């Protein structure tokens, strides 16, 4: 007797398709079980174990690497592998939140929000005292005044909040500026003292990468409690000021 492979119901001889499931009937449910096992085995054979996550390479000692490059102790393949790791090392730093940018953003927000909010409230006030009339009446006028009043009040409140935040950021901006100046001056002194010497045989891109990592190492080794990403931020932002790039070509 035929069986439905979906609902597992038995039908009389002569019926070919299950009227409920619209599935073709089979002679035995054992056939269905075998097909299911074979299909599962096929998928299992196709499945590949996921590769283990690649560990982020440990920070490379740039000075030792430079010495090996200068001494010719590294093969081209070894050098290219280390260059790839250096690129990861240079770009993996957590993004630093530049306080000056945050301060400027809040100052701009203060101006826009307060102007829009206060002008909007002024319009509603002038309408209320009869200086001019909005093109609404009755319930529409009341609803408009309430909704627009709340909206403009939110603008004013947000402007005040942004102003408070900007004032709180100002001391951090000044401290940040002082620290950046110290770091840039330190790196310039290191450069003048010959701390950042690279083999002239490397390409311009490779030399820039070496110098960037040397700067990051120098900052992290000589300044305590730097925020995550700060050494990368200073190096990346002030690289052209620290190094005369025209001499690197």
List the helices and strands and how they pair.
Layout: H1 29-46, H2 62-71, H3 76-91, H4 99-128, H5 138-192, H6 204-222, H7 230-242
Helix pairs in contact: 3-6, 4-5, 5-7, 6-7
Give a structural overview.
The chain has helices at residues 29-46, 62-71, 76-91, 99-128, 138-192, 204-222, 230-242. α3 crosses α6 (204-222), α5 (138-192) packs across α7 (230-242) and α6 (204-222) packs across α7. Mean pLDDT is 75; it is low at 46-57. The chain has 249 residues and is an all-alpha fold. The radius of gyration is 35 Å and the shape is flat.
Order of helices and strands: HHHHHHH
Rg for CA atoms: 35 Å
Shape: flat
What's the average pLDDT?
75
| Tally of individual helices | 7
User: How many beta strands in the DSSP annotation?
Assistant: 0
Give the biggest sheet: none
Which keywords apply here?
mainly alpha, flat, 7 helices, 249 residues
Summarize, please:
The protein is mainly α and 249 residues long. The protein has helices at residues 29-46, 62-71, 76-91, 99-128, 138-192, 204-222, 230-242.
């Amino acid at each position: 007797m035929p069986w439905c492979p979906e609902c597992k119901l038995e039908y009389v001889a002569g019926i070919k398709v299950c009227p409920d499931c619209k599935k073709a009937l089979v002679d035995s449910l054992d056939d269905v079980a075998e097909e299911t096992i074979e299909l599962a085995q096929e998928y299992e054979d196709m499945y590949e174990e996921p590769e283990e996550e690649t560990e982020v390479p440990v920070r490379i000692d740039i000075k030792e690497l430079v010495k090996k490059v200068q001494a010719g102790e590294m093969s081209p393949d070894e050098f290219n592998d280390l260059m790839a790791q250096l690129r990861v090392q240079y770009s993996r730093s957590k993004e630093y939140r530049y306080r000056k940018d945050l301060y400027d953003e809040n100052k701009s927000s203060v101006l826009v929000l307060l102007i829009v909010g206060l002008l909007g409230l002024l319009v509603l006030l002038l309408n209320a005292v009869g200086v001019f009339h909005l093109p609404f009446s009755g319930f529409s006028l009341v609803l408009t005044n309430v909704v627009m009043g709340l909206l403009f009040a939110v603008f004013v409140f947000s402007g005040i909040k942004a102003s408070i935040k900007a004032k709180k950021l100002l001391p951090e901006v000044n401290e940040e500026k002082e620290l950046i100046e110290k770091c840039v001056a330190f790196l310039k002194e290191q450069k003048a003292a010959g701390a950042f010497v690279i083999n002239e045989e490397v390409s311009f891109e490779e030399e820039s990468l070496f110098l960037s990592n040397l700067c990051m190492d120098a900052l992290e080794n000589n300044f305590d409690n730097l925020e995550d990403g700060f050494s990368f931020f200073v190096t990346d932002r002030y690289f052209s000021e620290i190094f005369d790039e025209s001499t690197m070509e």
